[in-house]
Amino acid sequence: MTTTARILAANAAAWDYWRWHATQADAWVSDYLAARGLRGTVAGQAPAGWARLVPTLTKRGFTEAELLDAGLAVRAGNGSVGDALRDRIVLPICDDASQIIGFTARRNPASDDADQPPAKYLNTTSTAVYDKSRALYGLDAKTTQRLARGATPVLVEGAFDAEAVRRAGADLVPLAACGTAITTGHLEALRAIDPDSVGRLVLATDADTAGQRAICRLVGLLTPEEVATVRVAELEPGADPADLVQQGRRTDLRAALVQQARTLVEVAIDATLAGYDLTSIEGSLAALRHVTAAVASQNSATLAQATTHLTHRLALVLDHDIVAGEMVDAITTSSSGDGK
């Protein structure tokens, strides 16, 4: 079994190699970052070819077994060992001591239109030092200090979204789950730095179906106190933070993250109501009962937010007394179910 120290050393060596490749005459990384409005992002380039990194690092004293254990190499069906990341822009994922524990990488955009392009994004596989369900891109030593001092964490899906948020204001701390799956482990990592950090969270997932699902799942992972204070930045349909920066709209991105961010409760309710016919009494009542049952166990602040928002959204069909009555019934039922 490869030791943690050897995996960290292999990651550091791989990063040095990829950083060097990003400076070569045929590198495409700088142009790609500039085109996306992310000039200045520190990135590496994994060269094309089956085995470029592996032979380089084996010459530096790392064994193939160590590179496989580090997630830097893969073994083919014929037994040969090659690079896990090939022809990609690479960004490092660090721990709270700024040690590189893994990588996230995007394919060369030149292959985007291929008949069968490689996966758009790849992350390091699980290793002794990297667990995607706990690691967050951007959560290094400096970020940890800022969060401990009360900075606002902004959780996004991808690393390039995080780099975009970095350009929206120095008071924001961008973090990426490197996917839509926000987990209990991610939240625990933030709480370990500052118990109140999750309560300050702004969520900026992509404005698509997967992003909406992520928002609804998050409600079940938070404490009642956090549910009442977490906010959501609503972006234009199909857009993400990186899109806005690429369009030169940093001011719009900041406004969405700060001034225009809505409560998690409101956004989650809207996502639920979208599945119902709110033009009919039957559909409105079904939607109302779905939402009230879902929020009945939350604290008083969240219940007040939910009641106000439901009253507003269902005003054309149901009056406030009906909404409030259904909320009370749901709370009573929830309390009875808890044995209270």
Automatic annotation (TrEMBL):
InterPro entries assigned to the protein according to its UniProt record, in alphabetical order: DNA_primase_core_N_sf, DNAG_N, DnaG_primase, TOPRIM_DnaG_bac, TOPRIM_dom
Sequence ranges assigned to domain Toprim in this UniProt record: 151-237
Family annotation (Pfam families): DNAG_N (PF08275), Toprim_2 (PF13155)
Coiled-coil region: none
Name of the protein described by the UniProt record: Toprim domain-containing protein
Organism name: Isoptericola chiayiensis
Taxonomic lineage: Bacteria, Bacillati, Actinomycetota, Actinomycetes, Micrococcales
